[in-house]
Structures are given as structure tokens and as C-alpha cells.
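Below is how a single chain appears once it has passed through the pipeline. First comes the sequence as given, then the structure the pipeline wrote out for it. We keep one example in the README because the format questions we get most often are answered faster by looking than by reading.
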Amino acid sequence: MAEHTELREFLRSRRARLTPLDVGLPWHMDGRRVAGLRREEIAVLAGVSVDYYTRLEQGRARNVSDQVLAAVAAALRLDGLERQHLFDLVRADAGRPDRTAAAPPARAPRARSGLHELLRSLDPTPAVLHGPRLEVVGINRMGKALLDDFEVMPAAERNMARWMFLDPRAREVYPDWGEIAEQTVAILRVAAGRSTSDPALASLVGELSTRSEEFARYWANYRVFQHTHGTKRFRHPAVGDMTLRYETLHTPTEADLYLTLYLAAAGSPSEEKLHILSSWAAAPATRSATAGGDTPAGDAASRGPSFRSGPPEAH
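Resulting structure:
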């Protein structure tokens, strides 16, 4: 995932979505092979030479000024996040004397014990602590009930993106799976722009691109997205559909960790369903006994409730 490849493909994708009419240029189809803007048209709009813009798009320009990047961003009609992504790509590994050196092993994100205590204290609000590659570093009881029990998965599989595309449960949890899945890929695009030589991210993207045609298609779109706040629909067999707000907070001492909370509007049907789900999730051993299961004593409680536990008989 060399930075020049990321930069080239990102700029090409932004050019392709615009037409001359979008930016106030005359549009003559004679000789135009594609509807998107040409390099020379972006160069004119940004006030730079065609040669310089070509070198920038190919990752061959050096010491690119903030003014030039801002002009290119404006020419391409980039929004705030796309603009920052462009700056990240151009500035990636700036000043490293040897860009061909092997990247050091990526550090697996870890959370101090206080953050895990915080997760538990937030109950009954579903909460997830994740890293920059969407690694699930921690999840509380209601997070497991709402999404899945990541803590029982092998450590290498505790990743929201991997779960989204490789675990059928994700399509059951999210009624709007396609929209959420595309956002998930776009989050990884932002991470790729901030660290273009991250071997762990490259491995994740390579695996998902190989095993999921949908992931590969979304990855090729070069969309960027930040999971800051918004709404999502969830489906659970115990309570049905819920619409929840999410808020993502950066942890102050671990810059690469993010805490996401899921909340229901006060007095809404979703709030009532969330309370019912909390009550249901609080007694996994009772559900096991009612269902006639022969789960060993203490095993269900140690794993915690999750979407995989199935619906209760009376709801």
C-alpha cells in the first residue's frame, strides 16, 4: 500500500466523479474518452502546470506546499474529510530518509485496565473500544448483546471489518448492511491514508479483498468516512429492529483507540427495546436452562450474552 499508489488512485477517483460542467468549464465530447475531468483541467483549476499536477498525482512531486494542496482540493471539490485525506497521503512518511526500508511490525492496540473498567461501568449502554484498523479491543455486556461476542473469537478475528464481511451474523445485525459495510471500508481508507506502510492494515485489506468481492468493490471506490456520530438500525431476535444513535470519542491517553457508544432517544420504542434486551442479556444461564441446553455451569456467564445466543421464548 505504497503512498504513491494510494495518492494516485484517490486523485483519479475524485477526478472521475466530476464533469467539466460541475466546475464551470466548457464540455466538448469530441475526443473525450471519459466523462471525468482530465489532468490538464484540474491543473488549470488549481493554478499549477499540467506537468506538476501529473507528477503530484503519480506521487513524484516533492515538497508540495499546503497552498498547492489546498488549491487541488478546491479544484476537485473535496469535502473536509477528503481534503484531510489528501494531506495525509501527501505527507505520509514525510522526512523518512529510506522509504524502501521494511516497515516495523505494527503494534497491536492495547487498552489499560481503567478503560476496560469504563466499558463495564457504561452498562447498560452498549459500548465498544476499537483501534485504528477497527480492531475490537474491548466490548461490554450490552455491546456483545447488540453486536456479537468478540471476546470468544480468536484474537486475530476480533476486527469489525473482518466480522462485517466474513461473518454472516453481521448481515443479520444490520438491516442496512450494505450502507454500513461501505462505511466500514471507507473508515479503513482513512486509516490507510494516515499510515501508508502499515503491514497489519495491508494484510487485513489483502485478506478481505481476496475473500469478499463486496469488500473489493467498496475498496475500489476510494470513499473516506469517519465514524464520529450518526444513527444506525440494528436487528436482534429478542426485540426486533432498533434505531440507535452512535457517538465515538477519542481516548485522551491512547490516541489510536476510540470508544463508541450506542444510545436510544429518550422515550422512543428503541429505548424500551434496549431495556428489554438488557434484561434478556442479564440472564444467559436462565435462557440456557429454559432452552434445555446442557451448557457447562458457568460457561455461558463467562462468555457473556451475544446475538448468537438466540431469542427468548417469551417476547
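The longest strand covers residues 240-250.

See the next section for the split statistics.
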